[in-house]
Design goal:
Structural class: mainly beta
Strand order of the largest sheet: 1-2-3-8-7-6
Number of helices: 1
Radius of gyration: 19 Å
Distance between the termini: 36 Å
Strand content: over 45%
Helix content: under 10%
Mean pLDDT: 83
Length: 222
Amino acid sequence: MKDKSMPNIGERIEIELIDSNIGIKKKQLTSQVMDKINDYTIFVATPIYHNVLFPITIGTTIKIKYFKKSIGMYVFTAEVIGRKNIQGLSYIKVKRTSDITRAQRRNFFRLEVLLNAQIKQLKPYDAEEKVINALTKDISGGGTRIISKENLEVNSIVEIRVEMEQEPIVLKGKVIRCVSYEESDYNYESAIVFVNIHEKTREQIISFIFDYQRKMKKKGLI
């Protein structure tokens, strides 16, 4: 790995609570680095969970994950050692307590968001490829959950086109689950893991997630 440095001011991060005195475990949150004291201590904005500000108590052990451009996602363990409010903005102070290591894909933060999508079930080259209209339930740098009116074959490889705000992304994925879904006009919910995804595309998804939450916060919706 070329860069094991702490995230810089302004960089987006994900926070996972792994120990809390209020009994919350493994809750994933999003935030941003607001100030960097040294290679161990940073201030971050009070994180967001389900579009709501989520304060973390002093003494809580957390994992911080962040994306290094053209390199990948990295993680370290930290402790919340302070909190402060400045001009109506809430911050927490955290101190790194472990080495910085490479994060696994399954640890990417998932944003709950409805986006139009088209799923193309890839067939042998001499067969017709079928396109299924769908909606995302959530999306992350590692995969997505979608709902559709038609089922997807588990373990099949599909091409996914997701309509994002700036431009659509097209990538391949593997269907790992498909179950009945009865909460809307859609009949099936499928979980898809991205395969052979280019890091530039993954970075585009992660940037969309944080930009989306920033816009929701600016509109006063979180």
